[in-house]
Fold this sequence. Notes:
CATH topology of the largest domain: Alpha-Beta Plaits
Oligomer: single chain
Strand order of the largest sheet: 2-3-1-6
Strand content: 15-25%
Structural class: alpha+beta
Largest sheet: 4 strands, antiparallel
CATH architecture of the largest domain: 2-Layer Sandwich
Number of helices: 6
CATH class of the largest domain: Alpha Beta
Shape: elongated
Order of helices and strands: HHEHHEEHEEEH
Amino acid sequence: xxxxxxxxxxxxxxxxxxxxxxxxxxxxxxxxxxxxxxxxxxxxxxxxxxxxxxxxxxxxxxxxxxxxxxxxxxxxxxxxxxxxxxxxxxxxxxxxxxxxxxxxxxxxxxxxxxxxxxxxxxxxxxxxxxxxxxxxxxxxxxxxxxxxxxxxxxxxxxxxxxxxxxxxxxxxxxxxxxxxxxxxxxxxxxxxxxxxxxxxxxxxxxxxxxx
Length: 211
């Protein structure tokens, strides 16, 4: 039988090794928690970078990222989608006459109308100024045009009380179908051109509508 003191000497290194292992595991868990926190902060910052701070919808950066993802999806899985490019009519006059606070109120009302009348799978964004885009999924071209006209009417109904004034704007919406073979930037440009064509059409039908 070995002496008792030799058994104690043998157990001391084992205890020290166990302590080191525990310390290493604790350090690993601490680093994992820090990494998880950093990754969460990165996701939050990315979401903020993709979001319009006034309207809490996607901004141009966020929308272009979403549009490119959508084109990749169409390339792989096919399907139908359309892009609406919406420009507000009469917005500049409200800003000039009543100030930017009134303009902001109008923008919020328009964003509420758009987000409240599309599906969860659709995407609403503000590209800048008074320009909005809506990405519509699973709609044939004719139905996308009908939806664009519906949104025009809804925006026109979005009156805002500002002081003693009741403010409202019109809207012109251009529509283009998405094609997986067309770059995202070209699709937005085509939708922008379609919007100007629609504005010209509305001006011919009602000259006061697009002032």
